[in-house]
Amino acid sequence: MAVAQTTKEKVKKTAQKLFRERGYAAVGMRELAKEVGIQAPSLYNHYKSKDDLLREICFDMAQQFFAAFDKAVVTEEKFQRKLKVVIKAHIGVIVSNLEASEVFFNEWVFLEQPNLGKFKKLRFEYEMKFRDIIDKGIKKDDFKKMNSKLIAFAIFSALNATYDLYNSNENLTQEEIANDISDLLLKGLKS
Amino acid sequence: MAVAQTTKEKVKKTAQKLFRERGYAAVGMRELAKEVGIQAPSLYNHYKSKDDLLREICFDMAQQFFAAFDKAVVTEEKFQRKLKVVIKAHIGVIVSNLEASEVFFNEWVFLEQPNLGKFKKLRFEYEMKFRDIIDKGIKKDDFKKMNSKLIAFAIFSALNATYDLYNSNENLTQEEIANDISDLLLKGLKS
DNA sequence: TTTTGAAACTAACAAGTGTTAGTTATCTTG
DNA sequence: CAAGATAACTAACACTTGTTAGTTTCAAAA
Questions:
Q1: What is the reported pTM?
Q2: What is d(CA B111, CA B114) in angstroms, rounded to the nearest whole number?
Q3: Are residues A150 and B165, on separate chains, in Cβ contact within 8 Å?
Q4: For residue B110, how many C-alpha atoms fall within 13 Å in the half-sphere facing its CB?
Q5: Which residues of B touch A160 (CB under 8 A)?
Q6: Dmax (CA) of chain B
């Protein structure tokens, strides 16, 4: 596995790792280059700026989240099942891209305009897809009557704990994490 | 409100605001100073380094979270109530220190040693206080049998969404946020 | 074998970094 | 009012930042 990586791929992977570990602003081009094994100016043969590199990481992830959601959401009818299946899809994307996801969630604030604006729009759209399921589920009495914005925020935050969970843990599988979290959110902690 | 602020207080407040908005690493001492209305070197009359400033923000918040937890936890016997009351306490601290809390959650990674080590220890202790309630509640059958680490992570993440919630929202009160989130976590979304 | 294009290199720039030294102004206290 | 402390100031240092210019290396195409 991980054979025949091009330099560009290596740059991207290394950037994801470093940006997650230490934050976009704290990682310099020289440090990134050193980790890749080249000189800093050589990075510009592959990406035209530091911002361009962040842009690619963030927008690639956005695309993956959208694709996974859209593929998952059509498979179920009941809203409880719909929610569970998109939660699983979301977690699936995170687990398959642990470092890039973290950058996506935490470092996008460093995007420059106009990328920043475009990105915010995408994030909002994605959030609305979740809220839509919740709102419709509430209308159909599949869900309790609650503030859907609050719920959506709580869900996102809980999902985004997946990274820490997956990294720090006693061999939880992606399936187990997805099941436990969606169970918690749907049924609650109370016995 | 906010009368007779000393320069040191103003520096701290401004730092909290800027560190939250743009990240610790992205905020320079000159920018901070400008916002305060003094020159950069004058900052060093109040804090001996940039790290020292971050240290004070983070450790002050840690202390507040501990104090609120300890005060809350003794007031209840049943573990469901215990959990609810510490959740409320935690959210209370966030709401009373919106910007500083965000720094506490997101920027502590930039602390230098030995502060970084001490801080990590504190965070872990705090997490364990929550997990302790969950574990004991599971033993007493107040809670379902679930992975307490996963649950603790999910709870923390959900709680830490409070900032975005409080800021972006349709006039939710602290009481409402605390109630809705603890209801969600205890009883779940399912009707 | 020569040509070409990609991707590496070195050197350097202008701007910005946290911070120190030394000095002056301002406020508090005796 | 004089003395001392506090907190502001200007100037500067050593280093790092993202990035560009110009050059060389090297493998594939002609």
A1: 0.88
A2: 8
A3: yes
A4: 27
A5: 157
A6: 60
Cα B34 to Cα B157: distance, rounded to the nearest angstrom = 34
Token pair 């975005």 in the structure block, residue: B164
Q: For chain A, what's the residue count? A: 191
Residues B103-145: tens digit of each pLDDT: 999 999 999 999 999 999 999 999 999 999 999 999 998 988 8
CA-based radius of gyration for chain B: 19
Distances (CA, A) of A103 to A22, A160, B157: 10, 11, 17
Cβ distance A157 to B158 less than 8 Å, yes or no, reads: yes
Burial (CB < 10 A; 0-12, 13-18, 19+), residue A1, is: exposed
DSSP annotation string for chain B: ---S--HHHHHHHHHHHHHHHH-GGG--HHHHHHHHTS-GGGGGGT-SSHHHHHHHHHHHHHHHHHHHHHHHHTT--SHHHHHHHHHHHHHHHHHHTHHHHHHHHHTGGGPPTTHHHHHHHHHHHHHHHHHHHHHHHHHTTSB-S--HHHHHHHHHHHHTTHHHHHHHSS---HHHHHHHHHHHHHH-SB-
B178 contacts B88 by C-beta, under 8 angstroms: yes
Inter-chain contact A190–B142, Cβ cutoff 8 Å?
A: yes
CA distance A78 to B144: 25
Type of residue found at A4 = A
Cβ of A34 < 7 Å from strand D? no
Confirm whether any atom of chain C, the nucleic acid strand, is less than 7 Å from CB of B44: yes
Task: Please report where in the chains the tokens 């969630």 appear, as a residue.
Answer: A105
Contact at 8 Å (CB) between B133 and B86?
A: yes
Distance CA A177, CA B99 (A): 31
Structure tokens at A50: 């530091």
CA dist A98 and A95 (Å) reads: 5
Reported as a single tens digit per residue, the pLDDT across A23-61 is 999 999 999 999 999 999 999 999 999 999 999 999 999
